Here is the input.
Amino acid sequence: MRTRLALVLGSVSAALIALTLASPRVIAADKVDPAADAKAFQNFFFQKFPDVKREDFVNGPYSMNADMKRQWQEKEEFPPYEFALDAGKEMFATPFKNGKSYADCFPNGGIGIRQNYPYFDEKEGKVVTLELALNRCREANGEAPYSYVKDEMASLTAYMAFTSRGKPMDIRIPDDPRALAAFENGKRYFYTRRGQMNFSCASCHVQSPGERIRAEILAPALGIVNAMPIYRSEWSGMGTTSRRFVTCNSQTRAVPLEPQADEYRDVEYFLSYVANGLPISGPGARP
Here is the structure.
């Protein structure tokens, strides 16, 4: 299986070549066209999997396999992430020690806004994810930040994602060379091979969605962040977007970055932007 997979991954399609970056880290802003990239990215998956409904890509491996999808739909009657939803809702409503709450930190009181994260903060000049914004809210109100990979952050983001379910991802890239550079840096990180196995994110999630690595069916990259955070049977619990990026690096035997490192924030920005128009489905569940 491993040899076969290596051969498959070694055969880079023409579409992937067109998407792969070979340019230096600093990108000339006038050469970056996120809208064209998003259109090409989505069309690649729509053409590769013509029988998969557009909105179903946000269901990851379940969109690739009919048997798995049936099992998952039965499981959704008693979803494994339900406990996190309940905990997240209670945490979100609980005031900080100073009397304020998460609702004071976000537009619309933090309800139904998941589809707008991450965003590019023009004052800071960097990408701000929902996980980062939640911890900044806590610190601004005298509370200790949560771990980016543990249960509390997953529960909070699960509740906020749930309030946005069905809303189309709506990520904006302002006309700012720093924002364009962040998008391009995220794109580059996604396509760059690394680690002892010499895999990129695209090796699994662009070249090989629907195929198996051991018992796992690989998810398509399109819509992969729309389902975050997720319950994974492999983890026996919930995981954040940060945890997923760290795990992916570890699985390819690359050295993981610190959660919320600039590169992870940029790749989340890239993956979220190219999924614009697809519905939020989080919190999700995965094998």
Q: What stands out?
A: The longest strand covers residues 119-121. The beta strands are 119-121, 126-128, 212-213, 216-217, 230-232, 237-239, 284-286. Residues 35 and 274 are 8 Å apart (CA to CA). Residues 1-29 have pLDDT under 50 and may be disordered.
